[in-house]
Design goal:
A 7-stranded parallel sheet has the order 3-2-1-4-5-7-10, sandwiched between helices. It has a two-stranded parallel ribbon with strand order 6-11. Strands 8-9 form a two-stranded parallel sheet. The chain is 38% helix and 15% strand. The chain has 302 residues and is an alpha/beta fold. It has a single domain (6-297), classed as 3-Layer(aba) Sandwich (Rossmann fold). Helix 4 packs across helix 6 (230-241). It has helices at residues 15-26, 80-104, 138-151, 174-182, 201-214, 230-241, 251-258, 260-266, 276-280, 290-297; strands at residues 6-10, 30-35, 44-46, 64-67, 110-116, 127-128, 159-164, 167-168, 199-200, 218-222, 272-273.
């Protein structure tokens, strides 16, 4: 399928956004980035710095608009103020883009909007797909609102919802784990047997491009194809760094430090999640196991 001639990316300064923009431009795709500062290059457009709406003409003629905005869920603790930031930083950009797309009517490009596997909450013992219901945690409720904001783009725009798993990268889910592992105090978090969804950065970018090019709409689980537990990831990282994996962190201790919402959403949640839509539409994973993803993310003995 031919590459789209232009893609608009919001949230291009984050880990995934930077990698996506680099990938698109390497392949000759024109990229317009929406930035919250004065533009520095012709490919940048300022937005969200005042109350002015996004000019729909910025999106006109693009093949797709990709929105990856959102304050980091990896910053702790989740105070009431930071929970508000988590919401605002996702809902406001998404609603702003949706409004501009509605104004374009039948000329609107596809809307590929960020979401997260936090949509599902924790469901021990269950296998979940894109058809599984939403959970009842703070992060699940946030994702429901986030996706509803994207769907407000209207019937003329194809809306794809990227339910992204924690990204196995030095600047992603591995960042805090690498520090603990380097210090020799890594080990099981809670039971350690809880199933964690995950995805490599290469496959995150590859999957987003697959969604754009394959005309997929609705929710898409961006998660690796092979089941992995918290211990599987921790052991793989410890082996890669040649460090022990012995010191158990009780769930109650994590909750005291990080807060209950963050602990339940990110550490003790149990999600056996499958990338059903990606597999059915022919996506091939570059890193099909969590061990492959860890190896791709860090050099040996880092």
């Amino acid at each position: 399928m031919p590459e789209p001639r232009r893609v608009v990316v919001a949230g291009a300064s984050g880990l995934i956004g930077r990698a996506l923009v680099d990938s698109l431009r390497r392949d000759g795709v024109a990229v317009t980035t929406l930035v919250r500062r004065a533009p520095r290059t012709p490919g940048e457009v300022e937005w969200l710095t005042d109350a002015a709406p996004l000019d729909p003409s910025v999106l006109a003629g693009a093949h797709a608009v990709v929105a990856l905005n959102g304050a980091s869920v990896g910053r702790f603790p989740w105070t009431p103020g930071y929970k508000s930031e988590l919401l605002w930083s996702r809902l406001t950009p998404t609603r702003t883009i949706a409004t501009a797309l509605r104004a374009l009517g039948s000329d609107a490009p596809a809307f590929v909007s960020g979401s997260a596997v936090g949509f599902y909450g924790s469901a021990p013992g269950e296998v979940m797909t894109e058809d599984s219901p939403a959970g009842d945690t703070f992060l699940a409720r946030l994702c429901v609102e986030w996706e509803d904001a994207a769907r407000a783009a209207g019937s003329h725009s194809r809306v794809s919802l990227l339910r992204t798993a924690p990204v196995v990268d030095r600047d992603g889910v591995l960042k805090p784990l690498m520090l603990l592992t380097k210090l020799g105090v890594a080990g099981p978090i809670g039971r350690g047997t809880q199933v964690w969804p995950w995805i490599s950065l290469e496959d995150e970018v590859g999957a987003i491009r697959h969604v754009i090019d394959s005309d997929i709409d609705g929710p898409v689980n961006l998660t690796g194809p092979t089941r992995a537990t918290s211990n599987d990831l921790g052991f793989a990282l410890a082996r890669r760094m040649n460090r022990p994996y012995l010191v158990r962190v009780p769930a109650f201790a994590a909750a005291l430090v990080l807060g209950r919402d963050a602990t339940e959403a990110l550490l003790t949640n149990d999600q056996d999640l499958r990338p059903t839509v990606l597999e059915k539409t022919g996506y091939r994973f570059a890193q099909p196991t969590v061990e492959d993803a860890v190896a791709a993310a860090i050099p040996p003995h880092a």
